[in-house]
Amino acid sequence: MSDAAEHHVTLSPAFHKDRRAMRLLGIWLFLGSEVMFFTAFFGAYIVARSAAPVSVVMPLEKLWGALNTVVLITSSLTMALAVLYSKKGDRDRTGRYLALTFLLACCFLVVKAIEYTHHFQDGNFPSHDIFFGFYFLLTGFHGLHVLGGMITLGILWWRNRRGDFNKDYNDPIEIAGLYWHFVDLVWIFLFPALYLL
Amino acid sequence: MSAETVNAVVDLIHPEPTSFFRKYVWSYDHKVVAKQYLWTSLLFMTLGGSLAMLLRWQIAYPNQPVPFWGMLLKGHFVFDASGAISPDGYLQLTTMHGLIMVFFVIIPLIVSAFGNFLIPLHIGARDVAFPVLNALSYWLYLPAGLLMIASFFMVKGAGEAGWTGYPPLSDVAGAVAPVWGMNLVLIALFLAGFSSILGGINFLTTVIRMRAPGMTWSRLPLTTWAQFITAIFQVLATPMLAAAGAMLFFDRVFHTSFFLPHGLVIGQSEPVNTGGGYPLLWQHIFWFYAHPAVYILILPSMGFASDILAAFSRKPVFGYRAMVISLVAIMGLGFVVWGHHMFVSGLNPIMGMAFMVSTVFIALPSGVKVFNWMGTLWGGAIRLEPPMLYAISFVSMFIIGGLSGIFMAASPVDIYIHDTYFIIAHFHYVVFGATLFAVFAATTYWFPKMFGRMMNRKLCYLHWGLTFLFFNMAFFPMHFLGEAGHMRRLMTSTGYEFLNPMAPWNEFITLSAFALGLSQIVFTYNFIYSVFFGDPAPANPWESATLEWTVPATVPHYNFKVIPTVYRGPHEYSSPEAAPADWIAQNAPPKGAAH
Amino acid sequence: MKRFPAWSLFLACMFAPALALAVDLQGPSVWIPAAVSDRGRDIDNLYMHIMYIVIAIFVITQGLLLYSIIAFRAKPGRKATFTHGSTGVEVILAVVPAIILLYITVASVNLWKLVRLKQPDDHPVRIQVMAEQFSWNFRQAGPDAVFGTPDDVISAGEVAVPVDRNVVFYISSKDVIHSFFLPESRVKQDVVPGLLGRVWTKWNVIPVWDLASQKRVLLTLAEYEAAPVAVSGYKLNSEPNPVKKWYQFSDSARINYLRYHYDRDPEAKLLVLQNGKPVKVPPQYVLHYFEIACSQLCGNLHFAMRGTVRVLPPDQYEAWLKAQQPDDYLQSKWTGIWDKFHPEYDRAL
User: Fold this and answer.
1) Do C83 and B263 count as a contact with CB atoms less than 8 A apart?
2) Which site from A160, C84, C275, C285 is most exposed, i.e. has the minimal number of CB atoms within 10 Å?
3) What is the pLDDT of residue B8?
4) Span B528-553, pLDDT tens digits
5) Of B295, B104, B119, B270, nearest to B207 (Cα)?
6) Residue B231: which CATH number?
7) What is the CATH number of domain A10-54+61-196?
8) CA distance A119 to chain B (A)
């Protein structure tokens, strides 16, 4: 981890500013790439849905989906707060909000697992029909992104506890925040596309 | 960014490694990563080329046992019990040759190897923006490549649905024999794609944020400009391939039906997949990636050629601004021409018309580049050193590849030549003829900087002559095969009466291809010998003006002791400012400056 | 610096394609098989137009490249011109190609409309094509002009069409993507499972085999009527061509270059027609066929997915339709797959 070498050294604010700009550019490019990745899935889904009979509605339980939407939006808020407090140099609160975000992400995955179990019990495997294929494809890859985000959050929480971050140096939390908002945003698209339309 | 900051970044991120592991294996040094890519992709090129030799044997001498290898591996690999190539084996050869050459040779070679090596040196930086990511992208690429090789050892062999992997053939169980061979290929492509995306992010950030003071956008060497545009393609297009591959993987493993319509019957049996998907969906997503990928395969080469032609003509590049604009135009148009791969695929003919128009006009920026290369040569003082000879061959071959492309852009003509050897000739002229000649140019040109030694000139000339001759002998007649309607991916054409007159041409091509393959031994020998025993190179053997030549022949770990300040464009050869010399380095202070 | 006369080698290599061209062939010296339909000839025309343009550009650009290398070689005392380019030249070099490309685009769009958008509506012969790994199935509607009825004419691997009439093929696949390729008609269309594609063409020549020269020749209907043609009693044979070329380095590695010829079939009844009437004279020609190829990779036996299309005079076409006796197996493919899974394919007609 490049940052591991950095935290031992006190660096000038100018350095952090330049490095931060690079990192932000990097993560935005990465998110651009991610957008294209999900665009392919969404595009394919739109093609499949628009060609299907109007009456076809995904037989999903809207309540679970709505619950997960709330959970993720809340986690976005807690993540934003973690970024905010890390910028203020408030290590305790940063840690608290990182942990809270992590827990909410856990919640999200647990709800998703319950939903998946229901689908499997009903015999709705990915191979059931094209819509369940898309459902598992989209939520599966989104779930993987949530999982990746959770690992990142865990590492950040631990590093925050160790005292890696301060007022001048908190880019990793900010970057993780951007990523987390993106994961949230994908769900904001997924929920209506899969559960409501 | 201030020079001081740049120094700090690199000092902190990777101090000069001392252990072997950190120096050569998990290295953060862009030059070492570049060399890792270079060696690995050259190894893969040997593999991909050997596969091509085998399949050429089968086309020229259908069902004859392959000498030596067929005897040795009877009944294994791609051979049948008699030592000839089996029908499944033949398709595996074509498929893996294509995939390996595109994803594991050309892209890593021209983008990752040369991009990694040159971008920081060109822009006056001490490393790329994210050195860890850089190491990671190599270590994603290598296992991906190993998975590709491993797929040959799966039951019933590697993927065999063509490099384009059109479903349902690549998708539904029973359409082709291999099962896990194909799955491994998909996983490998996913990893390689991820590696490619990480590389692209790295290059973009590096070029945008880490240019040395005075290195404005209009002073970037064209190689770096080309790499920059390529990186945009990589970041925005490659995820499409990953998505398509993921969907195909779902179809194959979880039996979804994204690309499978209702009512499929394979042989006598209906597949377990329920259907409801669209085979053409794959083609749209795939070509939305793969057409930009075609430009990933050629743009860096255009960059090499631009810089090398200028350096050896002792002239500035003709129309630097037009060169950059045409790169940008290619990028923009490159995203809206994917449908020209689908003129006869069942695409709506009206859409086909729109794609034809955009396709015809993407020829314009390429044309501008060709004319500008010729303008660069015009009035120069041309030194026909090996890199120059290779670079001029690049232009020459690219012209042929570009011109044959016009036939395909005209969709009514494409109806006839689509999926024939005309296409094979076209893209080998572009990807082998043009890109590989540019790679040879780049290798011979930057070899002194990479390894601190010179390559043997005479052997370079010999290799160039043999390659140029046999390349044209191998690939030019493929145009004739295409004109005769000879379909591609055909294990043998003997079954078709209308192709029978073309059999001698097939044999001629095969013999030329063997000679072409053997000619590469000259280069391999020259390369490996020179790495270890070549004459020690001076810091700037070609009297070039860009920044990489201002550092010592064996580039120190941090490239630049002091981050240079740039005062002028990359190709100020024969400038009055430089007199009496005919070149002036980008960082040489102007006369009368305070220094 | 020691000067290497590399340009001379370059010059020599420029002619490698020409060298390759000079290698004599055993087949026809022109590779493009003769077009057998009006649209096919249009495509060839466009092809040749582009070819002339391309050859001109090729000669100019490669010539200039070569000239530059020779004329502007570094010599002691020679100094390169210091210039960053010229906007005027750039504009000209962008506008001139743009005009040429515009010409190609307009020509292509016009032809594309004819080939792909304007389906003939003058009661064309309609044929359903179902591709499978690795053969072609054909169905014609029969006397009642309705598909999916017992009087359908079903065949596999071979189909007959009348000369001088528009033929529309409705193509689909039962398994993977194939490509329906009629080389001489310049028709090619991917056959996609789940999609019904349409291509059309009109053969205006009849392929026959000239017994004297043992070659295929193409006759118009009038020419066909005037000549004695065997419609049965001959069979096609092939044998490896024994000719050995200078570059064939070993006998074991001999290519399977086949030579085809028609022989009298002693077991079949000989029927020779001239002006529509049986005659007793020895035939000059035997009825032959065009080939159908699959041009999209469709599996391990892709190379063997060949079909034939017999272009026949009207009377022979009717006779061919009557002679088809499909077995239950072929019939079941149509009723069990095409009609079952895609009933709309018949309605779409």
Assistant:
1) no
2) C275
3) 55
4) 999 999 999 999 999 999 999 999 98
5) B119
6) 1.20.210.10
7) 1.20.120.80
8) 15
